[in-house]
Amino acid sequence: MPAYTDQSLYDALTELAVIDKTQLDAAFETSKKQRVSLSSLLADKDLLSDENLGRTIAEITGFPLVRLRDISVAHDILSIIPEVVAKTQKMLVFKKDKRGLHVAMADPTNLQMRNFLAKKTGLPIIAYIATTRDINDAMRLFAKDITTTFSELIEQNAKKVNVSAAKETDLPIIKIVDTIMSYAYQNRASDIHIEPLRKETLIRFRIDGILHDILTLPLSFHQPIATRIKVLADLRTDEHQAAQDGKLQFQAEDEDVDVRVSFVPTITGEKIVMRLLSERSRQFSLADLGFGQNDLSQVKKAYEKPYGMLLATGPTGSGKTTTIYAILKLINKRDVNIMTIEDPVEYEITGVNHIQVNPKTNLTFAEGLRSIVRQDPNIILVGEIRDSQTADIAINSAMTGHLVLSTLHTNDATTALPRLLDMGIEPFLVASTVNVIIAQRLVRKIHTSCRVSEVVNTSDLTKQLEPKTVVKIFGESKSTRLYRGKGCTLDHQTGYDGRVGIFEVLVVNDEVRKGILERKDASSILAIAVKRGMTTMLEDGLEKVKQGITTIDEIVRVTKEQ
After folding, report:
1. Quick check: bond before 306 cis, omega within 30?
2. Backbone phi, then psi, for 414, in 5-degree steps?
3. Can you tell me the distance from the alpha carbon of 173 to that of 160, in angstroms, rounded to the nearest whole number?
4. What is the mean pLDDT of residues 100-111?
5. Are 338 and 351 in contact (CB under 8 A)?
6. Backbone φ/ψ region at 40: left (φ over 0), alpha (ψ -120 to 50), beta
7. Strands of the 189-196 sheet, one edge to the other
8. Residue 493 contacts by C-beta under 8 Å, 6 or more apart in sequence?
9. What is the three-class DSSP state of 268?
10. Are 346 and 356 in contact (CB under 8 A)?
11. DSSP letter string over 417-445?
12. Pairing mode, if any, of strands 189-196 and 200-207?
């Protein structure tokens, strides 16, 4: 088999041109200086998608690529390699047939491990390449079903936790809380909801933006669980009638996961919501997020400018922060000073100076931003522009030689411009500082393992969408082929797995600037932008429907407020 080295990876990526050559050269030089593998560096900086990295390494080594996230593995097959060995050696058995054992490996050229496994099992080994990230994610397959786990815990310890005398330090309370968080992490949940009902406690996870009922526990467990979480989050355990917010951290397989915790009193008890701030959820390149080639090019031009403002807009949970962080990673270099003011600081990036908003010490967005501009920054990230003071300082910072990244709560890109004017910013300042506005939503992706297609009448689409938009994307044919997921055990029977963004990128060009100066409304500016070639969010979403990435139902669901 051909040798796989950093040099061979560099040569292959240069030839394939799947990554910007300047960024690849810089990463290659950094990998040599810091003595880290080029593949690790590319993955850490999200310069290359996990799938493209895997395909490239497969091409170099000659081993076939396997995507573990799309495969259902029987537990008896999985257990052929003990979990501890699988984790340390980054290898996993995913199939057994007449040919032998099919094994996914981060390094399939490791002949010693292949020989060891062949000797241990007495079977031929068919090795495949899988990326380290894919193998790490697949380790969740070792976990038992959460219902089984909790049934065993409750059965073994029911007598310990069914009276008010139970404490947060009692077993199985510690184990229950740890298991809830671990299982949520393994299933890529963004939020955990623990809700007291009349007769039981309901545990729900938000996965890919949708809440799923996971299991119920006896109501007697609720108070000890709440107390345990309060202790971990350093909150008052004797307060049950007031809202409380805090944060905690727990150890997952590969990282320490920060968790934001919120308690709110309801008529049936304290409802708990825990948001998991996993670094894994930020491991995306801009292309992975769903930007089309033209939009990607426009965003790249904007963040490569030394000054001006780049805004990401959309409602809560639309992925604005993920987009901004993906850009921040790309422009994070040793020769620039990057400073952020956030509430909260969700993720730490090495080389970036993060400041946490703290109203108790009057460290607001506006006050923090005033301090930042005195710290000789090149690039400033403002977590959110919430008021006229923050908007004014941010705009002036962008005017005076800084690149400013921020987010704004508006429905679409063009609405952001009147919003800034409503905050009291002069039109000439908005027109001369804002480079690009990105508006976005997140839609669920069809699970490729159970994807099926069907022919639908194009006229049926016009019941949910404007006829002219349908014709623009799908043409004038009477029928079109669309895709959906049937649902399987890997995707909780939803037919979806993961999420992708749908975007519109408004470039503030001369015509748009003229519209701003004339204080034209959002619809007028939209007409100008579309005339100049802007793809609307709805059109971008329907293109992804056409490509079999998502469904019409998803696009309608996330854009219906427009």
Report:
1. no
2. -70, -30
3. 10
4. 89
5. yes
6. alpha
7. 210-218, 200-207, 189-196, 269-277, 256-266, 244-251
8. 487
9. coil
10. no
11. HHHHHHTT--HHHHHHHEEEEEEEEEEEE
12. antiparallel
Report the pLDDT averaged over residues 445-471. Answer: 88
Q: Measuring CA to CA, which residue among 403, 398, 417 is closest to residue 517?
A: 417
The residue type found at 239 is: E
Report the sign of the C-alpha dihedral through residues 476, 538, 322, 188, in that order. negative
Determine the Cα–Cα distance for residues 558 and 562; give it in Å rounded to an integer.
Answer: 9
With b for 16 or more beta-carbon neighbours within 10 A and e for fewer, the 289-320 pattern comes to bbbbeebbebbeebbeeebbbbbbbbeeebbb
pLDDT above 70 for 159:
no
Backbone angles phi, psi at 22, to 5 degrees: -65, -45
Instruction: Write b or e for each residue in 195-220: b if 16 or more Cβ atoms lie within 10 A of its Cβ, otherwise e.
Output: bbeeebbbbbbbbbbeebebbbbebe
Determine the pLDDT at residue 163. 46
Q: What Rg, from alpha-carbon coordinates, does the chain have?
A: 26
Q: Which amino acid is at 172?
A: P
Question: Amino acid identity of 491?
Answer: D
Confidence of residue 18 (pLDDT cuts 50, 70, 90): confident
Find out whether 109 and 61 touch, Cβ atoms under 8 Å: yes
Name the β-bridge partners of 192: 205, 274
Domains and CATH numbers, the chain: 6-140 (3.30.300.160), 143-278 (3.30.450.90), 284-444+500-535 (3.40.50.300)
Task: State mean pLDDT over 263-290.
Answer: 85
Is the distance from CB of 193 to CB of 204 less than 8 angstroms?
yes
Given pLDDT bands bounded at 50, 70 and 90, which one contains residue 171?
low
Residues 6+ apart with CB under 8 A from 297: none
- At residue 164 the predicted structure's pLDDT band, cuts being 50, 70 and 90, is very low
User: What does the pLDDT read at residue 4?
Assistant: 74
Distance between CA 13 and CA 333 in Å, rounded?
22
Distances (CA, A) of 36 to 28, 30, 506: 10, 8, 38
**Spatial distance between the Cα atoms of 378 and 367, rounded to a whole number of angstroms:** 18
DSSP for 262-293 reads EEEEETTEEEEEEEEE-GGGG---HHHHT--H
Contact 303, 381 (CB under 8 A): no
Q: What mean pLDDT, rounded, does the chain reach?
A: 87
Span 361-412, pLDDT tens digits: 989 888 999 999 899 999 999 999 988 999 999 999 999 889 999 999 999 9
* Exposed/middle/buried for residue 491 (C-beta within 10 Å: 0-12, 13-18, 19+): buried
Cα(84)–Cα(410) distance, rounded to whole angstroms? Answer: 48
> What is the spatial distance between Cα 521 and Cα 442, in angstroms, rounded to a whole number?
26
The pLDDT tens digits of the residues spanning 83-97 come to: 778 888 888 999 999
Q: Report the distance separating Cα 77 and Cα 67, nearest Å.
A: 17
